[in-house]
């Protein structure tokens, strides 16, 4: 997402040759908005999450009185690393996986309160079964 044109290069958020923290912040905001829509929390938003851990087989987001869980606990598919400090968390939505990579030493992860360095999405596969060319058309002019 960082290197694409999906994030506008305005207000100091240009791509450039080096990591741009302003662009990184916009990418993080976009990713957390995506997580809010895809794997909502019981209370609060992903932007307010300051840590992730696994306890009793459930994902715990945040610490102390502000801690929350996923609105649908079945969306938690697993984790990699230590339960108290996972390296990655695997979530699911519509049968596809969302991997949240946590690395507080990463240039992106160290700017995020939860240490989220990357969000990796599983792609959906499609198959054309009719053995003909696939065509998308709207009208003769287009």
Describe this structure as you would to a colleague.
This protein has 142 residues and is of the alpha+beta class. The chain has a single domain (21-121), classed as Malate synthase G - maily-beta sub-domain, CATH 2.170.170. It is 13% helix and 26% strand. The chain has one helix spanning 21-38, and strands at 52-55, 58-61, 76-82, 85-93, 96-102, 116-121. It has a 4-stranded antiparallel beta sheet, covered by helices on one side. β1 and β2 form a beta hairpin. The chain is globular, with a radius of gyration of 18 Å. The relative contact order is 0.13.
Summarize the structure.
The chain is α+β, with helices and mostly antiparallel strands. Helices cover 13% and strands 26% of the residues.
Which range does the strand content fall in? 25-35%
Helix content: 10-25%
List how many beta strands DSSP finds.
6
Shape: globular
The tally of structural domains comes to: 1
Distance between the termini: 29 Å
> Taking Cα atoms only, what radius of gyration do you get, to the nearest Å?
18 Å
The helix/strand order is HEEEEEE
Number of helices: 1
Q: What descriptive keywords fit this protein?
A:
142 residues; four-stranded antiparallel sheet; two-stranded antiparallel sheet; Malate synthase G - maily-beta sub-domain; alpha+beta; 13% helix
Topology:
Layout: H1 21-38, E1 52-55, E2 58-61, E3 76-82, E4 85-93, E5 96-102, E6 116-121
Antiparallel strand pairs: 1-2, 3-4, 4-5, 5-6
